[in-house]
Amino acid sequence: MKALKLAIVGCGKRTRTVYGHFLKQLSSALEVVAVCDPVKTAADEAAAFYGARAYSSIRDLVADRPMEA
After folding, report:
1. What's the pLDDT at 19?
2. Could you give the CA distance from residue 29 to residue 36 in angstroms, rounded to a whole number?
3. 42: closest CA among 17, 66, 65?
4. Does pTM surpass 0.85?
5. Per-residue confidence at 1, pLDDT binned at 50, 70, 90?
6. Backbone angles phi and psi of 52, in degrees to 5
7. Sign of the C-alpha dihedral, residues 56, 61, 66, 69?
8. In this structure, what are the phi and psi dihedrals at residue 60, rounded to the nearest 5 degrees?
9. Exposed (0-12), middle (13-18) or buried (19+): which is 10, by Cβ within 10 Å?
10. What is the rounded distance in angstroms from the CA atom of residue 63 to the CA atom of residue 60?
């Protein structure tokens, strides 16, 4: 089965510490392809953690639409 492409909006500490480990365990079913946070450093850190593309604008994320969910 193909993994569902997921975008995460909001990249606070919990995104990497709590959800990060959970999402990595589900990597065969879910693939984080994009993260978005208005704080660019938070988006960049989360993107590096997930191996995803960082966005600091929700409008840009929606316009590009790299995700399925």
Report:
1. 84
2. 21
3. 17
4. yes
5. confident
6. -120, 175
7. positive
8. -65, -40
9. middle
10. 5
Per-residue pLDDT reduced to its tens digit, 3-62? 999 999 999 888 878 888 888 888 889 999 999 999 999 999 999 999 999 999 999 999
Burial class (CB in 10 A: 0-12, 13-18, 19+), 1: exposed
CA gap 31, 67 in Å, rounded: 9
Instruction: Please give the structure tokens belonging to residue 1.
Output: 């089965």
Q: In Å, how far are 11, 29, 41, 56, 68 from 4, measured between CA atoms?
A: 19, 6, 26, 22, 7
In the sheet where 4-9 sits, what is the strand order? 4-9, 30-36, 53-55
